[in-house]
Amino acid sequence: MRYLMMSKQSDTTPDETLFVEMGKFIEELTASGVLLATGGLEPSGVRLVSTGGEISVTDGPFAEAKEAVVGFALVEVRSKEEAIELGRRFRKIVGDGESVIQQVFGP
Question: Which residues form the YCII-related domain (predicted)?
Answer without folding.
Answer: 1-89
